[in-house]
TrEMBL record:
PROSITE patterns: GNAT. Residues 4-143 form the N-acetyltransferase domain. It comes from Caldalkalibacillus horti. This is GNAT family N-acyltransferase. Transmembrane segments: none annotated.
Amino acid sequence: MDKVEVRIITEQTDLDAAFHIREVVFVDEQNTPLEEEFDERDDEAEHILVLYEGKPVGTGRLRMVEGVAKLERICVLATHRKYGLGKVIVETLEHIGLDKGATSAKLHGQTQAEAFYIKLGYQTASDVFMEDGIPHVLMTKNL
């Protein structure tokens, strides 16, 4: 995996790259309204950027919510979904959560990605609900 680099975002250029990836995946590909994708929580979240062969291709963010690591905005460009980068993003965010004192994690997983999160140790903890016009479920994991 020496082709893969994960950065905790501290520079505006990396944040711009992460936001671009989110726009491509969520707004362009999945038709999430632009005003729904970017919110005030971006300012309080810890963001990561995944690069593959030096190119920004994936991102995610983490917020601590009542002591729980809440993983959000996990996405990888369609061209790079075959390299296991989603797992890298989830595991990195979990480690950041652990460093911040979390003992559990949660996320709103799209139902089409539910099996992916189950493979990573998450359990479905809700009925299906709609978020940004896409069916989701609440998923939880002890860290």
